[in-house]
Protein 1
Amino acid sequence: MKTPKLLLIIAGSLAAIAAVLIAVSCIPPSGPEPEYVCVKNGQPSSGFKDTKKNCPITSESLKAHM
C-alpha cells in the first residue's frame, strides 16, 4: 500500500514543478528593445528587417539579440 501512495506523491510533485517551470518561461523578458544594425549595400543580411529603420539587419546583430 505504501508504494502506490508514494508514486502518486512523486507524480503530483513532478506535475507541480512542470507547471511552475512552464509559467516562469511564459514571463516576457524585461528591458529595452534591442537596437539592430542595418546591413550596408552588397552585404548579406539575416533575412529579417528592422521595422523602425525599415532596413534589413545583419546576421550578427540578430544573433546578439536572441
Protein 2
Amino acid sequence: MKKILYAEDNSGMRKMVSHYLGAVGFEVVVTTDGDEVIELAKTENFDVILLDVTMERVDGITAAIAIRQMNNSNKDAPIVGLTGRTEMSEVAACIDAGMDKVLAKPVDLDLLAEVILNVCRGDAEIDDDVAQPNLQPQDAVYLTPKIIDLAVLSNYQKTAGAGSVEGILRDFSDSWPRKIGQLYSCVVSRKSIGFARALEELGANCRWHWRR
C-alpha cells in the first residue's frame, strides 16, 4: 500500500480527496498546513507527497523546498502540487521548488489517483513528459480542471461511503460565509495576497459542488 502525505487547508477538499484516496487503496496521512508537512517528513517515510500550493502558514512551495533539502528518503519522494492558479509563473515556481507534477483545482479524483501511481513507478503512462529530467512548466500542469457534477458526486459517494457527499456539502455551507468575510477584510486592508488566496479557495469550493 502506497503511503501518501497530503496537505490541504480547505476542509471540504481535504475530506473529499483523502476519503477517495483511502477508498481506492492508498494510506493517507492528512495535514492542514505546510509546517506540519515539514515536521512529518522529518520523521516518517512517504511514497508520495501531495501539497496544496497556497496554504496559510507555510505554503506548498516552501514545504517542497524544505523537503528537497532533507537528509532522508523523502528528499527524493515524488511531490504533486495542487493549485487553483495555473499561470505559467505559478507552475514554474512549483517546478523550481522541486515538485514533479502540478494539477489544477478542482482536481479530477480519478486522474489524481492515476498520477500518484505513475509518479510512484517513475514512468510516463499519462503523458510523455511525466517525471522527465528536463520537465518544463507547461508539461507539468493539467490546465483544465473538470467540474464535478451530480453524477461524479454520486460515484464518489459509492467509493467513499454513505454520508461522504453530505459531509462535503455541509463543510462548504459552513465555510463560504467565512471566506466572504475574509475577502471583504482583505479589500479593506488592501492585502492582495490574502485576497487572492481566499478567492481561490472559495472558487475551488464552488467548482467542486456546482456545474457552471
Protein 3
Amino acid sequence: SGGLLVAVRPEAEEEFLEIGRRHGLELASLGELGEPNREHLVRVVD
C-alpha cells in the first residue's frame, strides 16, 4: 500500500538505486518521461 514515484536523471539512476539498497529499500526503474503527447496521457512499453 502506498508507493512513491521519483523522477531521477538517467545518469543518476544507478547511484539512486544503490542508495536505496543501502537503506534496505527495494527500488525499481519502471519507465521514462517523454515528450508531451496529446494522443496518449500514459504509454505502456514492454
